[in-house]
Amino acid sequence: MNLFPKFKRFTLVLMIMASIKDLSSYSQNASDKKFKIDYPVLKTTVISESYFGQKVADKYRVMEDTKDSSVQEWLKAQKSLSDSVLKGISYRKELKEQLEEILYSSNVQGGFPRTAGNKIFLSRAYLKEKIQKVFYKENFDSKELEIFSTESVNTESKHYNLDYFEPSHDGAYLALGISSNGDEMSVMRIMDMKTKQFLSDSIERVNYGTPFWIPGKYAFFYNQLRKITSDVQKTAITEDSKVRLHLVNTDAKNDPEIFSSELNKNLGLEKADFPIIYTFPGSDKVIALVFHGTDPNWALYMSSINDLTDKQKSSSADWKKLCSPDDKVRSFVLCKNKLFLLSYKTNPNGALKRYDVAKSFSEGAVIMEAKDEILDDILQTNNAVYIKKLKNGISGLEKIEVNTGKIEKVQLPFGGNVNMKAPFPIPPAHLNSENLFFSIEGWNKEATIYNYNPTSKQIIETDFHPSGKYGNPTDLVVKEIEVPSYDGALVPLSIIYSNSIKLDGNNPALLIGYGAYGYSFNSTFSLSSLAWLKNGGVYAIAHVRGGG
Q: Dihedrals φ, ψ of 17, to 5°?
């Protein structure tokens, strides 16, 4: 049943889907001058200040104080207005039921796999039960075995969440990060895969990202946040974080400090800098990535695993600087002594450089330069490097032969948004496998995880992400066009609608566009937008940053 009344042609520029249906109806009424909203008025005082020689008049400074009586009255009046408008929608109950049917039609969400040779580890979230599980496969064709569920550790007072998981290089151990009651303060535990039981190892305050296992050793590097000892430190919990080294089956209280702003003062790090040490399959080198607050560009340093694991040398290990934030490096891998850096310094769309770390570390060679697309991300497997490209919001995937730099295009099952990495806060840089696992989703197709064999060039669809009832609607049409802007620049525009509607200009249209902070819209499947589309709405996405 189409819940939308007849509309004249109009366009809304909105970001919140929950408001779209309601506002569209009232926009029509307002245009007919049959409906008028009397918005609450906030009493304001203009405060003028000078910034860098420029005088700025701020009319809304009072809103920064939410305890101010006038602000509180205004907020209450806004709530009353919103409630009255929402309650006045005659078909709100039916739309709510339709949204709930669609949104809760898929109870299981599949996580991204992590590999250890042929062994595969993956997770799933069960929405109705509010639990998460981790599964294990001996190889791609073997049966899944459930090895962990948050239900097994939940109590009446604590509900646990799985934050991340990472197997050792051979899959003998699995490190998991879990937190309780939404506090995001991850505690890392180690599971012995022979017994499927947790060891006594327990490491607190390991919030961001997975541990990085050392190739050939049952040990890993991890970042640990500072311990909160007072209310003052709560606001600076990420300051003075330290990378430590943990050996399996040892007390974490004795884990040595390996990298920090305090230990490595010669590198000129600041208290707020956040370090992570990456390891790579088959390499005796490590790379320390240092985040500088919200700056998307990093500093990278390289050292030797042997120096860091030697108690006599770890505190004075030699760190070679690879790049600074000014070099605008945002992705890197180290494969077979070849270092790949994806930078946006000389080309805003990306340039990929390759260095040989076994020789004298020189300038490096540019092996790929973006032209009319974006070089978006890189990931390595045991023997190859893969690069994701973007054009008009649609991904491409290419394989790079490490030694020769030969480039080979991967033929994707369909056009959409490719993801090669597990969505952890600190994503991994490699898959410890010969094959590549990646996912694709589109405007009219939910995310599906595939396995790519580089030898046979075969791509196999997996069932790691279970398909939902509404996951792959066959009645949706997707059009990718380009529309000239006011200055003639062509702006990519994605248009989605149901093939059951008549394109006569009488359908409600939702147009969204966002381009701040370097953000771009990739083609993603949205269950919430289905209610709009099934009721005759047209959904359009303006890629104002050119699709990447």
A: -65, -35
Q: Cα angle at 224 between 187 and 242, to 5 degrees?
A: 170
Q: Which helix (H) or strand (E) holds 305?
A: helix 305-309
Helix axes 17-31, 527-534, angle to 10 degrees: 30
Give the whole-angstrom CA distance, residue 250 versus residue 248. 6
User: Cα–Cα distances in Å, from 425 out to 76, 184, 206, 211?
Assistant: 36, 11, 11, 12
Q: What is the pLDDT of residues 248-307, one digit of tens each?
A: 999 999 999 999 999 999 999 999 999 999 999 989 999 999 999 888 899 999 999 999
Task: Give residues with Cβ within 8 angstroms of 464, minimum separation 6.
Answer: 110, 111, 112, 113, 122, 449
Scanning the structure block, which residue is given the tokens 């540019």? 366
Average model confidence (pLDDT) for the chain?
88
Instruction: Give me the amino acid identity at 467.
Output: S
What's the first-to-final CA gap in the chain, in angstroms?
Answer: 37
Closest by Cα among 294, 409, 296 to 342: 296
pTM of the full structure: 0.83
pLDDT of residue 496: 96
- The answer to whether residue 314 scores a pLDDT higher than 80 is no
Three-state DSSP string of 485-497: CCCCCEEEEEEEE
Residue 117 has which token pair? 């040779």
Q: What is the mean pLDDT of residues 116-127?
A: 94
Distance CA 146, CA 112 (A): 16
- C-alpha dihedral, 498 to 504 to 507 to 513, nearest 10°: 80
Sign of CA dihedral 40, 45, 49, 55: positive
pLDDT digits (tens, 9 = 90+) for 321-364: 999 999 999 999 999 889 999 999 999 999 999 999 887 666 68
> Is 124:132 a contact under the CB 8 Å cutoff?
yes
Burial 38-51 (b: 16+ CB within 10 A, else e): eeeebeeeeeeeee
Q: What is the pLDDT of residues 55-112, one digit of tens each?
A: 999 999 999 999 999 999 999 999 999 999 988 888 888 888 998 899 888 888 888 8
Strand-pair partners of 418: 440
DSSP 214: P
